[in-house]
Structure formats: C-alpha cells, structure tokens
Amino acid sequence: MTNITDKISNVIFESGSSGKNSIYDRLKGFPKFLMFTIAFLSISLLIRISAVESALDFPFNIGPTLHNGIDGAIDWVVINFGWIFDIVSDFLKLCIGKLRDFLIWIPWPVFIAVVALLAWRVSTRRVAIGSTIGLLAMASVNLWDPVMVTVSILLIAVTVTIAIGIPIGIVAAKNDFADGIIRPILDAMQTMPSFVYLIPGIMLFGLGNVAAVLATFLYAVPPCIRLTNLGIRQVDPSVVEAGRSFGSTSLQLLLKVQIPMAIPTIMAGVNQTIMMALGMVVIAAMVGAGGLGIEVLRSMGQLEQGEAFIAGTAIVIMAIIIDRISHGFILQKSKV
Amino acid sequence: MKDTSGDDLETELVSENDPKIVVNSLWKVFGQNNPHQALDEQYRNKTRDEIQQELGLIVALRNVSFNVYSGETFVVMGLSGSGKSTLVRCLIKLIEATSGEVLVDGEDVTNFNADELLQFRRSKMAMVFQNFGLLPHKNVLDNVAYGLEIKGINRERRHKEALEMLERVGLTGWGEARPRELSGGMKQRVGLARALAVEPSILLMDEPFSGLDPLIRRQMRLELVELQKGVHKTIVFITHDLDEAVTVGDRIAIMRDGEIIQMGTPQDIVMRPADDFVREFTLGVQKTKVLHAGSVASKPDVIVKDSDTIETLRSLVHGSDSAYAICVEDQGAFKGLIRRETVDGIKLSEKKPLRDYFDESVEVIPSDTILEDLLPTLIDSDHPVPVIDKRNRCIGVATRRDVLRVIASESDD
What we know:
Largest sheet of chain B: 7 strands, mixed
Number of strands of chain A: 0
Radius of gyration of chain A: 28 Å
CATH architecture of the largest domain in chain A: Orthogonal Bundle
Strand content of chain B: 15-25%
CATH superfamily of the largest domain in chain A: MetI-like
Shape of chain A: globular
Helix content of chain B: 25-40%
CATH topology of the largest domain in chain B: Rossmann fold
Structural class of chain A: mainly alpha
Number of domains of chain B: 2
CATH class of the largest domain in chain B: Alpha Beta
Oligomer: heterodimer
Number of helices of chain A: 16
CATH architecture of the largest domain in chain B: 3-Layer(aba) Sandwich
Mean pLDDT of chain A: 86
Strand order of the largest sheet of chain B: 1-11-10-4-9-8-7
CATH superfamily of the largest domain in chain B: P-loop containing nucleotide triphosphate hydrolases
Order of helices and strands of chain A: HHHHHHHHHHHHHHHH
CATH topology of the largest domain in chain A: MetI-like fold
Number of strands of chain B: 17
Number of domains of chain A: 2
Structural class of chain B: alpha/beta
C-alpha cells in the first residue's frame, strides 16, 4: 500500500520540481505518506464544504440496466439451450440415483468390511480401525441411508470436478496465455462466498441433486485446476529437456514425462477437491440435495440441537475417513 | 581466436574425413529486446559486459565456428557462464540460435521444421545431461528404452536392446531398479546407456561427470575413453575441467565470454597456451598424462645413414661429445643405435658394412606414447630412447633430461 502511495506522491511532486525553490524543495523534509494523507483529506473536506452535487452522489446508476441484461441473457440461454441442460441433468440424476440405490443395497457389514480393508491396504491399521468405528457410529444413530445419499452425490460431484478440472489444469500448464485467463477467474471463484454457487445451479437445473453437483463443482474445481497446473509446471526442467532431446512430441512429453511426474501434486489437488466438496454438503442441501446436509438443516430449523449435532458430527467423521483413505492412496502413488 | 594446428599425426587423421558437424559463426543473444542488435558491426569490439549495459542483451555465443570430425571426441571447455552449455544445446536445437548455422552431415539444424527436428533427434544425436534427467517413475530398463519407446518400437524389441546397452555400461541386473536407488555414477551410466540405445552417430555430453565424486569421475572418464574405442561415436563433450578435457578429448576448444579463445589438441593447449587465461588452466593438468613422447623428443647429436662409411661415423662421433649415434635408412626409417664405446672399439682394418655394428634391438617408442608410459622405459635404459612416428621414421630421441625439463617447468609455474 505504501508503495502505491509513494509512487503517486512521486508523480505529484516530481512533476513540479523543475525550479530550485519549488514547493517540492521546501516540502522535501516531510515524509511523503504524511503529505499525501493531508492532501487527500483537505480535498475531501473542500468538496464536503462546498457541497458540489455531482461530486457527492454519483451522477448516474447503470445497475438496473446491467442486471436486466444479465437476466435476459440467462433467460435466452435457458430457452434456447435448455435441452442441453436437460440432458446433463437427466444423466446426472440417473447416475446419482443408481449409485445411491447401489450403496444402500450393499449390506452394512459388507460396506464396513470393504472400507476397512481399503483403509488398511492404502494406509495403516489404525486408520482401518478408526474407519470401522466411525461407520458403526453412523449406523448406530440411524444415519446410514443419509450417509449413502451424501456419498453418492459426493462421488459424482468429485468425478465431474476431476474430469473437467484436470484437463483445464493441463491446458493452463501448457499454455501461458490460457493460464493468464484462467488464473484470475480462479482467484475470483475462490473469493466468492460459497452460497453464490447455488444460484447457477438453481437457474439451470432447478432444485435437486444436480444443482448441488454444479454448486459443488464450482466450489471445488479451483484447487484441482491450480494443483494440476502447478504440478506440471514444477516438473524438473532437466528431465523435460532430456525428454525433448530424444525427440518426444509435445503429447509424448505430456503423457510420458510431465503428467506421471506431476501425479503427487495432482493427487494432492484431488484430495483438496474431495475436502472442498465435503464442505459443500450442508450448503448444497439448501438447493434440495438429500443426505446428511438436509438432516442438519431440518433439525436446525426445528431447533433440534441434539439431532443437528449428531448429523453434523457424522459429516465430520465422514470427512476424516475419506481424507485419511485418499491421503494414504496419494502417498502410495507418490512413492516413485 | 587462435587455432593452433595439431602435430602431423592428428592433422593427417582429421583431413581424411569430411567434418561431421560444422558450426558457422553461431550467435546466441538472450534478452527482451531485439537480439539482432548485438550482432551489429558497432558492437564487434565491445565486451560482453558493455553490450549488456548498453542494450540489455546477454551475448551467450559470439561468432563461434568450429568443425567436429567423424569419430573424434571434441571437448568444449569453459567456466560457468562461458556459453558452453548454450552451445551444445544449439547443436540439437534445444535452444534456438540467433544467427549462424549448424551443419550436421551437411544439413542445417537451425532450419529444421518440427518434423525434421524430431527425426533428427530420434536418429542422429543423443544427449547425456549433467543432472542425468532420468524419469523417476520408470525403472532403469524403461529409462534406457525411452528413446526407442517414443520412436514407436515395440516393448519386446526395445527391452532387448536396452538390456544390451545396460550390459555395455556395466549395469547388468539393474534393469528393474528405480533411478532413486542408484548412486550418481550408476545414474549417469543409465543416462549414457539411454543415449547409446537410439544408436546416434553423435553423442552430446553436457558436463556428464561434474556431479559425481572425484574418484567416480575419474573412473567414468576412463570408461568413456574405453567405450569410445568400441563404438566410435562422434562426441561433443562439455566440461569445466581441463584435466577432464585432456583425458577424454582428441581436440579441445576453450571458451570464455561466449567466444572460443583457443582450439587444438591437448598437447597444443598444454604446450602452447594462447594466453594467460588458458595458462592458468593448464597449471592444474598433469603434463605427464597429456604430453606425447613426440613433443619432448630432441634431435639426436649424431645421425648417420646406413649407407655411410665407418669413417664418416667415426669422425661424426668423435667430432661431438655424444655418447651414441642413431642410424637411419635413406628414407628416414629407424635402423639402430650405436654407442660411443663400440665406435671406439671398431678396428679400421675391419671392412664390415656399417649396419653390422648397430644395435638393432634397442627399444623404440611411438611418438604418441604419453610421458607417463615413456618413463619406465627411460628409467630402465642406459641410453636415450628413439622416438618413431607411424611410418617408423625416427623423429628424435627422448632423454631423461628432456622429460625432467618438462616436469620441472610444471613446478616452475
């Protein structure tokens, strides 16, 4: 900040410093920042006192024109390309439904055994035991079905996010121009409050699980893109050079050198994506996503603190289990 | 630039071949501004620093020209920042030159389009890197086979060839290991095997041994020299170590500030350094390992032809204080050596031909023997050792004094 003010005051004072006895020479002793503050305060005071209308209230407001325009554009998209969204929506609905039915169909002891075995293979025995206890706890409070619904939405959302995020990350890594466009968009997306992501979901897909998937995707895709980009850019340049020196095409270089070497970082991005997606579970429930989120929302709405606490805790347990298992998986993949 | 010509043998060897690589006034200028400014006539006499200050451009290569002949090991030596790494990358177009041409087998690499460049890299040139550049996610065998893999050679065949290459570099049985399990020396053997596997006619080596321990480094140099005897590649070898340069190199180019300041055989560089900068480098070199017997041999005091008479021999020997005489045939081929005592003992009444008196069994030394190998012979013999060239002509004799003088001059400096 001081840097900017320095630069501004430099421009202001430097311009009038031709003569020897200029104002600049006399004011030289004062700190620039102090002079700058005095200057802008006195200008503000002057305008306030003289009460110049156009300097106190902005002379026009184009807000309504703008948001009317945006509304029109969205209406146009929905009317003309609605069929595309219908196809996507139907497809995702089908996937989520089938997956949910399948997960609920699996008897709980089998499900717990599979998760425990997986945890033990990719991580430690401690994680396996912890996962078992966690799942048993969720089953014991009759949250098994909501958990399975949440898992199915989560799996579909994460799959969509990775399937779109990683290719975008690769493009950003390979092309500086694309990176220059994508980077500020990601910055904006990450500063946006997460509730905002519910809006496009409702507009394009209406209330339901599909809107939740879109909201989750928008919220969780930035780390996936960023870390894929970073991972590929971070690959040891001497190895890339060696690959080029043997006559690799750009695609060969990507598939045989850059992506394999970036796997640990890309997987860290996938882990981040999963965690972010979990963070959207409750918020996504507001647009009609089923599962644990709706349990939390409903019980909070009815002032059932106990139920809300239990459902909230179930989300935390789920997050821990998924994080530990995916983390173990990443470590295994990173061991080169 | 001073191009000191090699001794007769080397120039002969070189002139028999067409050059494999011709580099013609190559320039590489780095910087944001138009790099061609630095090539302008008005900057010809300015130093690199002055150009950088005036134009904001860094001149990495400045009008570099040289030839590399088929089967020779050409060493480019220089300190960091001298442009040697840029130079070697320009040869394979990993860095695009600003101006000039690089002809390999008569084709200009700098003009290659993308396809031609891929074919060129896949078949003609392969490179070995200082940091190895191995793929950590692939095992050693697949690393060696990488060049073949991207050429589209099937798995079975490329593994077979990779196994052969591993054997050649002494890593039999390591195919399944990951690069991270290997020591530095072994990693570089993998790098070398990977380069050899694509069967290039030219091998570029960018400070391949600089990252290794001193002992391993020396061993690798000797192995490279041995290996080269079997494969006869054209090698362009980059190093910052003159000791390494003289061990592996047939010819050496010394670079400073993007220019070649001296080019010649190791003997040329060590015996006749172009300036103080080069001389500084030569101080660290073991001369007994570099210099050939031919470069220390002195003219014998008495030479006679085998058609000469005994009287001639006697008068020549007695006319000097030499303890021996060398006999050569008319064409200059070495015949034998006769000691002063023998000359004294010859009775005038004996009418035997001159050649009967000469000791034809004395050991002779080829002129390209390095001093280190000459020393044992010299220590064991009580007379100077005749030095002969490839055509058996006697080009002089090596005495203990000659050799000692060279070694002493080393400590003088």
